[in-house]
Every structure is written in C-alpha cells, then in structure tokens.
C-alpha cells in the first residue's frame, strides 16, 4: 500500500518531462464524479475541472472529459454512454454509491479501459488499477480516541452515517474500533447522506428521543453543520462535543477559534480527485505506469496545526 503524497508529485514530474514524447493517438480519459450536491463534492467538481483544463492545455494528445451525475443511476448511464460513444483509455471515477457502480465499472474495464477509483470505492477492489483516497478508518478512529480521552471513557453518543459506501463503512468501523473497550455508548446511528438538511432533521429526532447526549459524531462536515444548527435551536447544554470530518474551511475556522464544541477536525481533501487524474494521465504521457493504493493521512487538526489546513479561498 502506498501512502506517500510524493507519488503524485513524481507522476506530474514525469508528465512534464515527457510532454514532447507523447504518443500520436489521442488518449481519452473520462472522469465521472457526483454532482456538486454538498460542500465536499463542490470541491471535487472544482478540482476535477481544474485538472482537465490544465491537462488539456498542456498535452494536445490527451483529452480529459469530466461528467457529473446527480445520482447513482445517472452516473451509471453517464459512464455507459461515454463508453458506448468512444474508446476510453482510462476512467477515473468517484462512485456516487459503491454497490450500484461496481457492475457497470467492471463492464467498462472488461473493454480494456484502465480504472482509477477515488474515495468511495467499489465493492470489488480487483476492478481498480489505482485507488486514491483518504484514510477513512483513521478519520473515524482518531475522532473516537479524542472522545474517549476527553469524556473520560464514558458517556452517551449519537452517530450520523453518510451514503452507503465503502468509505462510510470504513469510517464507522474506525470509530467503533476507537471506542472499543471504553464505556462510551452509541445510542443511535442512522444515515444522513452527508447532507446538512438531512443531518439537521435527524439530529432533531435524536434530541427529541434522547434526554442526555454527551457527544455527536456527524461523520463529515456538511452533516456537522446541520447538527450544530439543530443543537443551537434546541438550547440543549448537555452536548459537550459535536465533531465531523473532511476539513471544511468553516469547521477548520472553528478549530482555530478554539470552539469548545468543535475543537478538533480531520482532513479529507476533495483535491484528491486532481491527484488521481494526474496520476492516471501520467502513465500515458510520462511512461510512468502507476498501480496500487494511495491513501492520504488523517491526523487530528488541532488549534496548534489548524492554520496548515485552512484555505479561505477554497470552495470547501
């Protein structure tokens, strides 16, 4: 397993050095990603389009095509249409959901297309030639360990899940492993689909159902925004911590300000899609075949290091 960020830098360097040696046949790189339905995916769309613009300008014999889809079924249709209408040399895909996209992506691979999977993963990892993601188990485990420490190993928790995907499963596993052996009790755990509005409604339900909650793990920052608003409107004072994950600039700003309810964060940059696109293209223009798994670290963001993760001009 590869965990070094320098892999992407090396791939880019190979591309630049080989810009005059590119093959004559134009290589088609399709990029399929969810539509910008919340903050993190807005960042994904932004960085994917930026990568396509840069690569298409720098390498005339490479065409990067970006397609966004608002649902899993739309994404299936989009990649099937792309594959039917032209020969795709590589597909870089961030699946809307894991199970629904696994079969269609395998069918494209069977045509000889190289597959790069980003973030959410497929249920069959043998389909991918390259996988780029954050360390989702660490996102959950590092957050859980913080809560175990700060709550003295005991208390009532509620958890919000994301979209049914491999990465949601990994985050939940990491969190459960992190609280194992403590007296922290998960009162409830339901899906909010990484959506602020759904998280707001679910947190209202939790607040109505449970008279005492010590901490909330929202699983990501879009969900956390909904949780924080629900807690604020309720006037409840029992909740000591409300935590998310992904590195949204608004949440990192809370960490910098030493917000008592949200004092830490975990990074999960949407720019990983750009890294994945560059690494995929590198093998066609830089004679640098890249295979395997690239995982980005997920250390706790604290007031001491938060400025390193704060990018106010970023879309996320």
Rounded to the nearest angstrom, the radius of gyration is 20 Å
User: Structural class, judged by helices and strands?
Assistant: alpha/beta
Please write the string of helix (H) and strand (E) elements: HEHEHEHEEHEHEHEHEHHE
> Remind me, CATH topology of the largest domain?
Rossmann fold
Query: Which stretches are poorly predicted, pLDDT < 50 over at least 5 residues?
Result: 1-10, 16-23
Shape, per Cα inertia axes: elongated
Question: Number of DSSP helices?
Answer: 10
Biggest β-sheet strands, sense, barrel: 6 strands, parallel
Q: For this structure, what is the CATH class of the largest domain?
A: Alpha Beta
Q: How many discrete domains? A: 2
Overall mean pLDDT stands at 91
CATH superfamily of the largest domain: Response regulator
Percent strand equals: 15-25%
DSSP strand count: 10
Label the CATH architecture of the largest domain: 3-Layer(aba) Sandwich
Q: Terminal Cα separation, in Å?
A: 28 Å
Q: Strand arrangement, largest sheet?
A: 2-1-3-4-5-10
Residues in helices, as a percent range = 40-55%
Chain oligomer state? single chain
Describe the protein.
By secondary structure, this protein is of the alpha/beta class. Helix content is 43%, strand content 18%. The protein is built from 10 helices and 10 strands. The chain has a 6-stranded parallel β-sheet, sandwiched between helices. The longest helix has 20 residues, at 39-58.
């Amino acid at each position: 397993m590869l965990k070094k960020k320098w892999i992407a830098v090396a791939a880019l360097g190979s591309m630049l050095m080989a810009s005059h040696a590119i093959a004559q046949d134009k290589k088609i790189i399709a990029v399929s990603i969810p539509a910008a339905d919340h903050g993190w995916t807005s960042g994904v769309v932004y960085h994917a389009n930026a990568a396509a613009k840069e690569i298409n300008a720098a390498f005339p014999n490479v065409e990067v095509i970006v397609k966004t889809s608002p649902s899993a079924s739309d994404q299936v249709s989009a990649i099937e249409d792309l594959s039917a209408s032209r020969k795709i040399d590589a597909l870089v895909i961030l699946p809307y959901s894991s199970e629904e996209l696994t079969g269609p992506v395998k069918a494209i691979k069977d045509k000889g297309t190289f597959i790069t999977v980003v973030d959410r993963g497929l249920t069959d990892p043998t389909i991918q030639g390259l996988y780029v993601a954050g360390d989702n188990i660490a996102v959950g485990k590092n957050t859980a360990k913080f809560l175990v420490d700060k709550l003295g190993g005991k208390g009532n928790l509620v958890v919000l899940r994301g979209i049914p995907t491999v990465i949601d499963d990994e985050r939940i596993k990491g969190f459960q492993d992190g609280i194992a052996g403590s007296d922290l009790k998960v009162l409830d755990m339901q899906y909010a689909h990484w959506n602020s509005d759904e998280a707001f409604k679910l947190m209202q339900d939790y607040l109505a159902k449970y008279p005492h909650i010590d901490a909330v793990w929202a699983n990501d920052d879009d969900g956390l925004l909904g949780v924080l608003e629900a807690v604020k409107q309720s006037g409840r004072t029992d909740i000591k911590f409300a935590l998310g994950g992904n590195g949204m600039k608004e949440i990192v700003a809370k960490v910098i300000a030493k917000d008592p309810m949200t004092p830490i964060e975990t990074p999960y940059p949407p720019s990983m899609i750009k890294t994945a696109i560059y690494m995929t293209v590198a093998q066609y223009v830089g004679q640098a075949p890249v295979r395997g798994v690239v995982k980005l670290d997920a250390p706790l963001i604290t007031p001491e290091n938060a400025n390193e993760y704060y990018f106010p001009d970023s879309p996320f």
